[in-house]
UniProtKB/TrEMBL annotation:
This is DUF503 family protein. InterPro entries: DUF503, TT1725-like_sf. It comes from Salibacterium salarium.
Length: 92
């Protein structure tokens, strides 16, 4: 089972693309290290305070994939740097 969570987020404190990229890189690196997921910025590359991050997990057990994606979303919610606004889940 492949599960993906597409998360649109706001980064209120970013005042430039450089600051935004630093925040996104920090978040994606932490998620990759702490969770069993793959993470990438997928959209809004030219906007400073907006980003779209996709998180993907793969496992033969659907419940494990779902739990990993939920843990990743909860991890993002605990970060003060960004606010998750819209999340869409996709199952393949």
């Amino acid at each position: 089972m492949i599960g993906a969570a597409h998360c649109e987020c706001l980064i209120y404190q970013a005042q430039s693309l450089k600051e935004k990229r630093a925040v996104v890189k920090s978040i994606t690196t932490k998620m990759k290290q702490k969770l069993n997921v793959s993470v990438a910025e997928m959209d809004y590359h030219d906007l400073w305070q907006r980003t779209a991050i996709t998180i993907v997990s793969v496992n033969r057990d659907t419940t494990i994939v779902e739990k990993e994606l939920q843990r990743a979303c909860e991890f993002m919610d605990q970060l003060p740097e960004l606010e998750r606004t819209i999340t869409e889940f996709e199952w393949l």
